[in-house]
């Protein structure tokens, strides 16, 4: 009865499906076009810009996969993203824990420091950051030189997302652990961390994808051998701009890791973003 | 009378506070030691994060401010103090004022175009149609891609003459612009905006969808029983309830538009003839290419102040309404 009452109301007619198809075509069009373009030759693309591969060629993709530079860039991207994620998540959950579970005088002002941190775009500090990392810390052209500032800029959102999760842990669990003789640090390690795992994965993925996609900081700090995939893709496309098919193959393969990560952890990323917006 | 009125409620409050303090002291097993232990623990937990932010966020921002008062080429001692002259030069530089204008055009256009578009798609996807989950995933795909990688694909698509967009336009019988969409000064910024909309619409849709799903089913049913059409329900019930989500999205979109860099750098580099410069590309150009670190510092301070003032104003004027109504 109820479903009969609501179905014609909330479900879409043919027009809904047509609009949905248009949205899908516009959204995926450029991505699919790039992926298909990788299977064509430059001649095919020039002849018929909107055509399908005929015949399908594998050589562009083979060229990317057998290109040692591609693997080097991918390796650099992975390592930098892993370090960024580890540093941001570890420091973030440590900071969020007392902000969520302790009662102390400057708790809210301390939390405001992190909230204010959200307002500092990396672009503002980018040139002093470049000078600091390359000259003072001598970390120019290294993984850590990119990862540490990235982790620092990822910290505010990490803390802001984690705090409500840690606050939601029932007080009774903590009290029970205290009676069993656990210290506050023991509670943090054995109780808070395992219970906030879903939130940790959310912030971890956000930090990872942010680092994986980052451009400005790596652009200033990394050269030649140490470049990441976005830098590699951008440089490849300016260097071989006439080789459209080759550029398409290169970009398509570079998209895959972020897409897989996103598809695998879609629910968590979406949940984390929504939580951050509501909070 | 007014004196009394003011004094009366204050007294019990003070009393309450003193008793509260008293009880805490009584409950705590060892007043001094426990508090110090807790302080140490707080310091232990918070200091790695604070240290990281101090070194890599706060210090560079302070340095940017300091740099903005000197003429400095990036090496040697920073001792040529010029006061506010860098700011004067930045604010009177046509390229910079154009950059600010471009940023604001993107801010306004994003809200005027992406908000209704995002709402429309979200309302659509919220209906019970087949493959809704898949649709939601697809709409979010561009957002997950690196701005640079998406930019490179669009750059290829938009190449003059042999690019696909030109090909499709000629196939329909129209004449594409001779210098290409990104090479024609009047078209470069609108084209940039189209690409940005493609890239970021997914986030708006996703957030609005989440908001719509938080609207209780009963509300829809009640409105429906009262004889409201589907469209009326969306306009009068669902979208007003989305208010807080919409306002938060506008805030995020605004901050993002002010910081715009990656896409511009890949698609046009700020050209042609500075038609697409943004504050961020301006300061990178001045700093790393021109070696005018003082100018870059002044530009980044201006960028920060604009962002901060807008964020603050938005928080005070618009977002405050949400937290007030929550209470």
TrEMBL record, chain A:
GO terms for biological process: transmembrane transport. Residues 74-265 form the ABC transmembrane type-1 domain. The keyword Signal does not apply. Its main location: membrane. The keyword Transmembrane helix applies. GO terms for cellular component: plasma membrane. It is found in: Cell membrane. CDD domains: TM_PBP2. InterPro entries: MetI-like, MetI-like_sf. PROSITE patterns: ABC_TM1. Belongs to the binding-protein-dependent transport system permease family. This is Carbohydrate ABC transporter membrane protein 2, CUT1 family. It comes from Nocardioides szechwanensis.
From TrEMBL, chain B:
It is a multi-pass membrane protein. One of its GO terms (biological process) is transmembrane transport. Residues 100-314 form the ABC transmembrane type-1 domain. Keywords: Cell membrane, Membrane, Transmembrane, Transmembrane helix, Transport. It comes from Nocardioides szechwanensis. This is Carbohydrate ABC transporter membrane protein 1, CUT1 family. Gene3D superfamilies: MetI-like. Belongs to the binding-protein-dependent transport system permease family. It comes from the Bacteria. Its main location: membrane. Residues 1-33 are annotated as: Disordered. Pfam families: BPD_transp_1. InterPro entries: ABC_transporter_permease, MetI-like, MetI-like_sf. PROSITE patterns: ABC_TM1.
């Amino acid at each position: 009865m109820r479903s009969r009452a609501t179905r014609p109301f909330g479900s879409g007619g043919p027009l809904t499906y047509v609009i949905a198809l248009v949205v899908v075509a516009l959204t995926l069009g450029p991505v699919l076009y790039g992926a298909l373009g990788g299977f064509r030759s430059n001649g095919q693309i020039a002849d018929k810009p909107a055509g399908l591969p005929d015949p399908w060629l594998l050589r562009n993709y083979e060229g990317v996969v057998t290109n040692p530079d591609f693997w080097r860039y991918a390796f650099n991207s992975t390592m930098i993203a892993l370090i960024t994620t580890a540093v941001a998540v570890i420091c973030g959950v440590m900071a969020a824990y007392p902000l969520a579970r302790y009662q102390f005088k400057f708790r809210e002002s301390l939390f405001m420091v992190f909230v204010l941190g959200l307002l500092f775009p990396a672009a503002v500090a980018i040139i002093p950051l470049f000078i600091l990392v390359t000259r003072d810390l001598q970390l120019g052209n290294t993984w850590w030189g990119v990862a540490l500032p990235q982790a620092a800029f990822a910290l505010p959102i990490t803390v802001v997302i984690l705090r409500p999760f840690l606050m939601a842990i029932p007080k009774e669990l903590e009290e029970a652990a205290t009676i069993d003789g656990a210290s506050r640090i023991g509670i943090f390690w054995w109780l808070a961390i395992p219970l906030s795992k879903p939130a940790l994965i959310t912030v971890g993925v956000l930090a990872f994808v942010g680092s994986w996609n980052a451009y400005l900081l790596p652009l200033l700090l990394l050269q030649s051998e140490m470049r990441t995939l976005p830098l590699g893709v951008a440089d490849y496309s300016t260097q071989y701009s006439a080789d459209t098919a080759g550029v398409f193959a290169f970009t398509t393969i570079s998209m895959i890791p972020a897409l897989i990560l996103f598809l695998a952890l879609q629910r968590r990323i979406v949940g984390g973003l929504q939580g951050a917006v509501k909070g | 009378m007014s004196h009394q009125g003011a004094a009366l409620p204050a007294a019990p409050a003070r009393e309450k506070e003193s008793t509260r303090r008293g009880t805490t002291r009584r409950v705590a097993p060892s007043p001094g030691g426990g508090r110090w232990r807790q302080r140490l623990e707080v310091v232990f937990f918070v200091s790695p994060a604070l240290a990281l932010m101090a070194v890599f966020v706060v210090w560079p921002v302070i340095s940017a401010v300091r740099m903005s008062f000197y003429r400095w080429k990036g090496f040697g001692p920073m001792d040529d103090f010029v006061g506010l002259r860098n700011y004067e030069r930045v604010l009177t530089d046509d390229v910079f004022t154009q950059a600010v204008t471009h940023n604001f055009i993107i801010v306004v256009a994003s809200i005027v175009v992406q908000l209704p578009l995002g709402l429309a798609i979200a309302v659509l996807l919220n209906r019970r149609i087949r493959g809704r989950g898949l649709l939601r995933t697809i709409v979010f795909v561009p957002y997950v891609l690196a701005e640079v990688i998406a930019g490179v694909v669009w750059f290829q698509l938009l190449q003059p003459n042999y690019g696909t967009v030109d090909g499709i336009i000629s196939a329909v019988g129209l004449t594409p612009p001779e210098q290409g969409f990104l090479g024609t000064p009047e078209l470069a910024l609108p084209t940039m905006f189209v690409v940005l909309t493609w890239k970021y619409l997914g986030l708006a849709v996703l957030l609005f969808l989440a908001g719509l799903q938080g609207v209780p089913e009963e509300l829809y049913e009640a409105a429906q029983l009262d004889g409201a059409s589907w469209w009326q329900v969306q306009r009068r019930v669902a979208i007003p309830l989305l208010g807080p989500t919409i306002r938060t999205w506008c805030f995020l979109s605004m901050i993002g538009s002010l910081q715009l860099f990656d896409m511009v750098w890949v698609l046009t580099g700020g050209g042609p003839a500075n038609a697409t410069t943004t504050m961020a590309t301006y300061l990178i150009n001045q700093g790393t290419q021109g070696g005018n670190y003082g100018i870059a510092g002044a530009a980044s301070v201006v960028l920060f102040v604009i962002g901060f003032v807008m964020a603050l104003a938005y928080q005070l004027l618009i977002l405050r309404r949400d937290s007030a109504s929550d209470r």
